[in-house]
Every structure is written in C-alpha cells, then in structure tokens.
Prior knowledge:
This protein is α+β, with helices and mostly antiparallel strands. Helix content is about 25%, strand content about 40%.
Amino acid sequence: MKRKRLDRDIGWGFQGFPYYQFRLECEDFCGLCCLLDLKSGETHCWSFEKAGEAPVAGAGMKWLQLLPDGKNRLITAMLLPNGRLSVCYTDVIERVEFDPDGVAAYVDKYLDVVFTPQGDCVLLDRDELDEALSVGDITKAQYDGAISEAESIISELCEDIPKTVKRLESVFCAALERIELGEEPLKTKYQ
Length: 191
C-alpha cells in the first residue's frame, strides 16, 4: 500500500497552488475537508464512455478532497472553474495519518471508484488489489475490507449520481464560504 499526502506534493506536477485543510461539518458532510486551488497548469483530461473527454486538472480547477467520518475512503471532486463537477475519483483507503507539518496523508488500499455527472461509473485497480493479496502485501481481512468499501462507495455515491453531484457541489460551496470567511491555507505554494 502506498502512502500519499493530500497536498499532492509529489508526482502531480501542480505548481503554485494554495492548499486548505480543515474539519467541515455541514448538512451534506462531516469530516476532514481539503481543497487544492489549481492556479496554473495545462488542462489534462481523462476519457469516459458517456462524458467523453473530461477535465481533471488545469488552471482554474479545484480539487475538493473529503475524508468522511467513519468511512475508509477519500473522495476527490475535480471541479471546473465554474464550480461544477467534472470527475469524482474515490480512493479506498486503509487509514489517515498526519505529517509533522500538519498535512493529512492516507494509505491507499488499491481500489478506486471513478464517476462522472454524465453517468460513468468505473471500478479501477482490482487487479492490483488481487496481486497485493496473492503476494502477501495485504491480509485477507484487508482485501475483504477494500471490496466492501468499494461496494459501499458504488451504492452510496453512484446509484443516484445527480443527487451525489448536488451534495458534492453543496459541500464545495460550504468549503468556499469557510475560506471566504478567513480560513487560511495550510500551504501557499507547491514545495
């Protein structure tokens, strides 16, 4: 399992963005909320059957990252400059940790669920999860937990995608309101 920081400081190629991290409790979400405000960069797209070419990163986009209480998942809502959801990428995770500088990190548990507002829903990296079990990198209990969490993500987020999109956009508005009220970024630049 790989450990990844939520400020995405390694391997993504973002530059010069503020990173916010705070606890958020609102009608549609309770847990740790992180926001990357992508100030620059070329637009990168992923291809989907229904959505076609969907932007996932680029100048003006924002990544709303949510670690809901009581769940083993990281929800990353990739938002267009107008605040509308482009793609939602949900990692199944083992746990959350905090680095000495206060930035949250997660231990990735291989499986991912990706969906678009147009109705795409894709389960990724099942082969990596199967391989991890076969070589002993994870236990059978961890394997079963990952499968269960992925099924829960699909059930909770993908069975009614329009409803989920509205909830994510509502959480984004709540996060922006918090920032507009003076929430300071935890980090102000790519390091």
